[in-house]
Amino acid sequence: MGSTTNNHISLTYDEVVHNKIRSLEIIEEQIANALSIIPTYQQPINTAKAFNEEFIDLCRELRCNLDFAVSNIKTFKSACSNEGSELKSAKVDQDDLLKTKWKRLGEGGSNVFEAKLGGNTVAIKVLEDFKQSKALFTEGKLLRDFRHDNIVAFRGMDILETDIPELNLQASSPFIVMEFISNNLYKYVESQRTPENSGLPIGLVWNLGRQVANGLFYLHSLKPGVSHRDLNPDKLLLDIRSMRVKLSHPIIALNQRMDSFYNARWTAPEIWEYVDEADELNEEVLDDQYHSDEVFFLRADIYSYGQVIAYLLTGESPWQGHHTASVENLRNFIEKENKVNVPEKFGGPLKQIIEACREENPEKRPTMQELIYNYFSTDSNPYQSDAESAEFFCCGFLNDTKMFVADSLVDESSEGYFKTKETPQGYPADCFVCEVEVGNKQYNGCPREENWPYEQKYKEYYAHFRQAALDKKIADNPTIALKHLVTPREDEEERQEILLKFRQSTYCHHRAMREVWMKVLDDSKRAEVVPCKSVINKTFSTSFGLHVAVLTAESPPKFIFARRANREGIATPGKFTCGAVESSSTKDYKKIDESGKKAFVDLVQTAVRGLEEKLRIELKGDDVQAISLSTVYLEYDTHEWGLCGFINLSDHRIDPSRRLTFDQLGSRFSAGPKDKFEYEELKAVDFTLPTMVEFVRENYHNFASSAKLVVVKVLQSFFGVSAVEKAFQSYKDQ
Questions:
Q1: What pLDDT does 15 receive?
Q2: Cβ distance 382 to 345 under 8 Å?
Q3: Cα–Cα distance, 107 to 256 (Å, whole number)
Q4: Of 329, 566, 607, 708, which one has the greatest count of Cβ atoms within 10 A?
Q5: Cβ density class 173-186: b for 16+ within 10 Å, e for less
Q6: Measured on CA atoms in the order 369, 374, 378, 381, is the torsion positive or negative?
């Protein structure tokens, strides 16, 4: 294929590699010709002996060097052939890639676009200048070899086969395909900013800082070490579902000038001297001479890391307010404004890290290895409570809960409906039609483990509850127990699914096992029996509940609290809960397998049934789409698994005739729901952040454990995680 205009060369992989090899062959032929005309002397000629010996030595040395050059060329030819194979293996399906329109994400020497590949959103980095293709393919080869949770993932690389006129991209432009992450630390900090607090919670800063350090340590520890050279909050990508930080690919800085304004905010002082020298020499920054001095840039990365941590803590960036200043003007402020001041209230190891990393003398800064070993070598967070480090749910002062969150779509990234105007989403509805193993009697009686030490106590408790059932105080109905749970993988972006599988048990068995867990096992025994909370313990997992909070259809909406009746048979008598709580049972079976050994339960139906039986909220048809179930949890103090969420009765998907106010709901409750005997009181609280925080703060000691989790998750869904945490903390400090 021939050449085109604008310095773009339309070449296939095979042609690129062929031309490289052909160029080497031409050089090889020229060297061979040179070798052929150099005489081979075995013995000196008698005349002009001294001169002759010197000439012969020179010829021998020349032949030796040329032979060595030929050997190197052969090695390089082999490497070129291998490169061709590697490039082919990284090719992408361009037909698939071009099915959807690309969206431009950035400008500069390297354009970045959002696109679709294999149904997943990806980021594409395109070089318009073919002269830079060598750097890009070098970058691609590096990226392909990177394997780290905190480095953006490589998806492939190729050369455009067709023009994309609307984006001014021409065929033959090389590009790299990478994992797409739309958020970054800069956007996240700005989104969480409030009048009271500009930065992030200090415990979260520690977790984010640890991840950035891990990613940098990985790069710096490669042989040879790789520096990032462009470390700033904008280039630290944030997967908001998992709150995982990923460093954008480090070599992108090779295609940019270091004197770009945004980079200058975060860079080390010595980089300025480097820019000056490059400008004086009229050379581009980061030329080959400086590329070889990798230690220089590794130390500069450390300084930038300190700048980033200071920003996460305070929300203040270097040269705050100088948004339109030129680089030359910025340099006038370098001595007094290039460092964010960290207030005294931010003490402890984070402040030590910031001070050490921002040492003016690069040689006095710690290496990433030293930072990891001295501060991040364990998983402990010095700014979190014992409850948090034990993986239990915690929000503000609610640190006495024993709720383990196995998975939730409401996480640190959630900004809330009132800010985003996006309806909070739950897991897909098809996740809630789940397989149930039925007919296995070992799930209905004393565990058949050999020498199970709690058999006698179990039998005593079971006899008690069976008698209560015979006396009609409780109903010994079949129950559904969780036996298997798979949560979304870290790298899943398109669809957040969970997989739940169950087995059929009985209510009396559940209550007996619950008593053994609560009254017989102490904390050490519980930890021994359940060493990993996310793994289902099939002995003590004997039920599964749906906890659905309710918001009424009025302004402001009311959040419904229900107080359980203080009577025998009620699991948590006298305690407040949120909305409706219902255990999944055979009533919710959607179908039963012909063999009779397998059924399928509909958990959404459990939620619908609970709302109707507990509160007389009737949902029909498309109404059920308004139920949002978003969190799987283990109530550790009772060892009960559950799923929680909410229903907003003002949701447009609910028929207008069934959008109830609290007064309407109260009259229905008074008329007598099927399970009215379980609740003795309904309490409505205005669904505003101040009133909700005040009510929870004053009454949380009378909450069932799951109610604490549910109320906070609903608040986070509507008001945002950061705002809720700050509201609870502010109330606590009053």
A1: 56
A2: no
A3: 11
A4: 607
A5: bbbbbbbbbeebbb
A6: negative
